[in-house]
Amino acid sequence: MQAHLNSIAKWGKFLGYVYIVVGAIDALFGLFAFIVGALPGVIMIFLGIFLLRAGKEAENLLREYDERPLAELLNNFAKYLKVMGILFIIGIVFAIIMVIFAFTGAFFFGDLLNNMNYM
């Protein structure tokens, strides 16, 4: 179990910092596309914070076993997974909508081209 906690501590902190830095850069460049463009970067910063906290609590668990760090580790990891799950569902919904628009556009554009050939 200590090896797993050690891995969570190292990778959680590393990826947490990476997510925060990349999210900040993404949010900064996204501001040029209005406020909505910064939203993916802000979400990435929050994901980085959740991973960083989980990594730090895993490190606390390695030093001394206590129920509070374990609860915090699981809480932060659960938040990370929840946000990622919501983003995945949103991505699937947008993909389905885009496929519907693509087929609808192809149908109407194809019909328009056929009508232009007959004139």
Descriptive notes:
The protein is mostly helical and 119 residues long. The chain has a domain at 2-83. Helix content is 88%, strand content 0%. It has 3 helices and no strands. α1 runs antiparallel to α2 and α2 packs antiparallel against α3. The chain is elongated and about 80 Å long. The N and C termini lie far apart (75 Å). The mean pLDDT is 88.
Which helices and strands, and how do they pair?
Elements: H1 2-30, H2 39-63, H3 67-117
Helix pairs in contact: 1-2, 2-3
Helix content: over 70%
Secondary-structure class = mainly alpha
What Rg do the Cα atoms give? 22 Å
- Percentage of β-strand residues: under 5%
The ordered H/E elements are HHH
Amino- and carboxy-terminal Cα gap: 75 Å
- Give the integer mean of the pLDDT values: 88
Main β-sheet: number of strands, strand sense, barrel status? none
Total beta strands? 0
Oligomer: single chain
Q: Please tally the helical runs, counting DSSP H or I stretches of 4 or more residues.
A: 3
Which ranges are low-confidence, i.e. pLDDT below 50, for 5 or more consecutive residues?
A: none
Characterize the overall form: elongated
Transmembrane segments: 20-52, 86-109
Protein name: Putative membrane protein
Keywords: Membrane, Transmembrane, Transmembrane helix
Pfam families: DUF5362
